[in-house]
Amino acid sequence: MQSEPQAFDRVLSSMCTDPHPAARDAAERFLATNPGDPGTYPTVATLEDDAIEQLGEIAGLDDPAGYITSGGTEANIQAVRIARERAGTRTPNVVMPESGHFSFRKAADLLGVELRVVPTDDDHRTALEAVRASVDDDTAAVIGVAGTTEYGRVDPIPELGEIARSVDALLHVDAAWGGFVLPFTDYDWQFAHAPVDTMTIDPHKMGQAAVPSGGLLVRSPDLLDALAVDTPYLESTAQATLTGTRSGAGVASAVAAMDELWPDGYRRQYVRSQNNADWLADALEKRGYEVADPTLPLVAADVPRSTFDALRAKGWRISRTGTGELRIVCMPHVTREMLASFVGDLDRLEVR
Ligand code: 0PR
């Protein structure tokens, strides 16, 4: 079996990273526990309360409610489900920017909700006019992304909140990736900044927890009621999660990572990652590529397909945006040395 550090040493495309040692250790200790059955596994159930408490602090939510999901996909599906249940229309729709993650397509499919995809502006952020033109009385939720998958952009969350309120829809913020770096920026994205109702914020991305560890936060506990089903033969009476048996490892590792890193460790990591992204953007620009300004630690650059393929052939794990730009995510395992070596390979290709 390959060891993890080796597995990560050329990975520039992932939104997951090497878990913090404390998170790895906690995951191992709780491997065989199931927070879906709190009557039998009370320790991990208590840890989950701690996790939600911590996530709430990070996301600016007093009195937080929610649960640790299998990932951003589950959290997004559940958020759409909450909105659909609350909307009380037979023909619900949700409005999201084209920069929204594909998990919302799964949500719309599963839940029978119409997905209205609106364009983004020149800076890859939701075009507010298009959102305004798309909402109506059947709109169950407006979706904003705080740290988009392709360009790391943050949508204008307070403005989206106003639009959502104008049609009595919920505002869902997808901070799956951005949630653990945004507290150290000036963006308005938190519950405290805008009328946010539900949020996805994943410990297993920038939070440095082990997979699977996603987060769903809701402004008030009653929003979770829309998800609850009766659990006749368990000690607890209702379950709001999508999965039944789920990973205590994810829950315990999220708590361990946040205990270790919130806030100073995450702040240091944000600064390191952002510096790396700025350095890489600069290096690529100097070589004549068009680069999307890395407003968060994610760099997208217009590199020809042939160059991209040659870099992949050299073993670099890189990916492309929908429009074909090279995309590099400056996760905690991505060091300056790695990036310098990557740029070195790029230079050797260009000489030929
Ligand atoms: N929301 C946003 C903004 C995301 O970027 C992602 C995942 C999700 C939701 C869904 O989260 P889960 O994958 O936890 O369900 N974005 C990455 C992507 O789809 C996920 C990823 C992670 C891809 C690791 C590759 C990889 O190696 O590109």
UniProtKB/TrEMBL annotation:
Pfam families named in the record: Pyridoxal_deC
Catalytic activity from the UniProt record: L-aspartate + H(+) = beta-alanine + CO2
GO molecular function, one term: pyridoxal phosphate binding
Assigned EC number: 4.1.1.11
Biological or metabolic pathway of the protein: Cofactor biosynthesis; coenzyme A biosynthesis
Membrane is among the record's keywords: no
Domain of life: Archaea
Alphabetical UniProt keywords: Decarboxylase, Lyase, Pyridoxal phosphate
Cofactor(s), by name: pyridoxal 5'-phosphate
Residue numbers carrying N6-(pyridoxal phosphate)lysine: 205
GO-annotated biological processes: carboxylic acid metabolic process; coenzyme A biosynthetic process
PANTHER family named among the record's database cross-references: PTHR42735, SPHINGOSINE-1-PHOSPHATE LYASE 1
The family this protein is said to belong to: Belongs to the group II decarboxylase family. Sphingosine-1-phosphate lyase subfamily.
Role summary: Catalyzes the decarboxylation of L-aspartate to produce beta-alanine.
Official protein name in the record: Probable L-aspartate decarboxylase
Organism the protein comes from: Natrinema salaciae
Gene name of the record: mfnA
